[in-house]
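Researcher: Next sequence.
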Amino acid sequence: MAEDGSEALDFLFGRGRYEGRRQVPSLVLLDLKLPVVGGLEVLKQMREDSVTELVPVVVLSSSKEQCDVQSSYRLGANSYVQKPVNFEEFVRAVRQLGTYWLGLNEPAYLNGAR
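Model: Next structure:
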């Protein structure tokens, strides 16, 4: 788990302390309110890169603002979920997202690679 948007980008693209490591995640849960580099910028850069452009991204945010929802979808988010405030509800929501995106959903693969 990355602590800010800059670290998330380094992790995704194998830079900085993750130099040489480029394992594409099966799913990204993305908060919009990340320090250093915001979540929308992380999403934008993911969609501009041929390796991460098809990775499912679920925006998990406390914001219900339509501008945040619309911006997320315009930049290529696959889903937008308002983050529950209660910790138990948050854990339940993350489990449900994992079940759907990693268990039920049929992922797209680039060049037939898994």
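Model: The helical segments are 5-13, 39-48, 66-74, 87-104. The mean pLDDT is 92.
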